[in-house]
Amino acid sequence: MKIAGNIDTVSVLSDADFNTFYYNRKPVVIKGGLEGTTCFSKWSVNYLKEKIGSTTVRVAYTEKGSYNYAIREVKWIGGPFDEVSDLFTLPASKGTSYYLAQLSIPGFFPMLMDDLEIPAFIRDGDILDKVNLWMGGAGCDSGLHYDNSHNFFYQVCGRKDMVLFSPEDTPLLYPSQLPGKWHMSEVELHDADVEQFPLFLQAQPYHCIVEPGDIIYIPTGWWHNVLSLDMSVSVNFWWHRFDIPIGKGIDMFSVPELSSFLQRFLQKGVDIDQPDAEGESLLMRAVDKGHVNFVDALLRNGASLASVNRKGESPVECAQKNGRRDIAGLLLKHAEQEANIKKLEKH
């Protein structure tokens, strides 16, 4: 596999710099970003054993270290954390690999929450979806996959080798067709069968190694394969921003699904017409990008047709200019319905 380039790496990241990565949908590594934090200074295996104690946990295991459950059988065992955590320190040469994966810290390990600092780039209007703990021995391989949330990934102990692909490479990565596993690739990254998956050779991989104390931001929709090089402890924060979701391909979402996404923000008091950093409403951006289902969901949740883009175009004018008669028709129909409602209210 020929690496196309390395992930951008910085030692300091300002809010303005992060916004540049966010709006350009680019991942970035913050070297030493955990320096001075409690989790980085305290979280050894022995410390976690003492804090978590005999709390029952479920641990995945496989014979070859691959946890791509779209193509591999993954088995599970359970037991007290202070006992099963010893499995993570077994030499990789022993064959069987053990992985504590994606366990909610607030749900399973609330005693650890005081040790964690929420990433500063997650704003008040954002939704913090999940905070997870990950532990495993050298050789644990996540399998190639993507998430439907933005991700801040804290590497607390050990090193992890990461290979990432842009969402634009999705057609080349053979997403699984199995129900519930569409976010997993059928390609085994480190042992790819290029005869079975010939388009994979056209994909453009980006590489980085995250070391103890590093933070990596992975935008929603970016494919990533994570391989533990050492016994590893990690934390990740999945979060959403009031923006156009691009995870599994926004056009695959139903209007009710997108409405549900929007309502989570509206319930927090977010204004559906609030402008983004470039001064445009979400409706204008959805129209410009041609997402008819998201336009429909926004209109159903009260988005105003009075917004304009930076060129002064209305949503209808933008849709017509882009040749999207379906979106223009939807907008005009909604405008007509609004006008009729106002007439009825006058009577």
Short description:
This protein has 10 helices and 13 strands.
Description:
There is one protein chain. The protein is an alpha+beta fold. The chain has 2 domains: 5-240, Jelly Rolls, CATH 2.60.120; 250-346, Ankyrin repeat-containing domain (Serine Threonine Protein Phosphatase 5, Tetratricopeptide repeat), CATH 1.25.40. It is built from 10 helices and 13 strands. The strands form 2 sheets. The protein has a 9-stranded mixed beta sheet. It has a 4-stranded mixed beta sheet with strand order 1-10-9-12, with no helix packed on it. Helix 7 packs parallel to helix 9 (315-321). The chain starts with a strand and ends with a helix. The mean pLDDT is 91.
Any descriptors?
347 residues; alpha+beta; Jelly Rolls; Serine Threonine Protein Phosphatase 5, Tetratricopeptide repeat; 2 domains; 9-stranded mixed β-sheet; 4-stranded mixed β-sheet; 13 strands; 25% helix; 22% strand; Ankyrin repeat-containing protein; ANK repeat; Ankyrin_rpt; JmjC_dom; Ankyrin_rpt-contain_sf
Structural class: alpha+beta
Rough outline: globular
Number of strands: 13
Looking at the overall shape, the CATH architecture of the largest domain is Sandwich
CATH superfamily of the largest domain: Cupin
Low-confidence stretches are none
Distance between the termini: 70 Å
Strands ordered across the widest β-sheet? 2-3-11-8-13-7-6-4-5
Radius of gyration: 23 Å
Order of helices and strands: EEHEHHEEHEHEEEEEEEHHHHH
Protein name: Ankyrin repeat-containing protein
Organism: Chitinophaga ginsengisegetis
Pfam families: Ank_2, Cupin_8
InterPro entries: Ankyrin_rpt (IPR002110), Ankyrin_rpt-contain_sf (IPR036770), Cupin_8 (IPR041667), JmjC_dom (IPR003347)
